[in-house]
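Morning, I've got a small favour to ask if you have a moment. The fold is given in discrete form, as structure tokens running alongside the sequence. I'd be grateful if you could look everything over and explain what you see. No rush at all, and the record is pasted right below.
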Amino acid sequence: MARTFLALVSFIYILLAVWCAFAPDTTSQSVGFILKPGSGQSEFLTVYGGLELALGIVFLWPLFQKEVTHFSLCLCAIVHGCLVLFRTLGFFVFTGFESTTYALAGGEWLIFLISLTLCTITKRSTKSSLE
């Protein structure tokens, strides 16, 4: 179950990386960014395309190496916990959100809670199997 969940999260991140790389104007506008030609476009491609692809690869890794499942789940919980923290702070500090922002927030919360739960469960099962 954990590896299937991580593969699903991976698939989402890889799709987002492709969307950011091949349609940066559409992607950035959907989350309220205006890309400045040159530097802004490069930064968006690097951070959103590159980082999302890297996360997609890390979350896909357990399909090929089962031993990294617990690590990937914990990393997923940490990454999404940080996203949830800053997204929630943003909701208190800023106004005027588009529907995409709310959808992203819901997805981030869902992934955070599921990955945290699975991380906790796999730690217990790993610990008990080692004892």
Remarks:
- The mean pLDDT is 91.
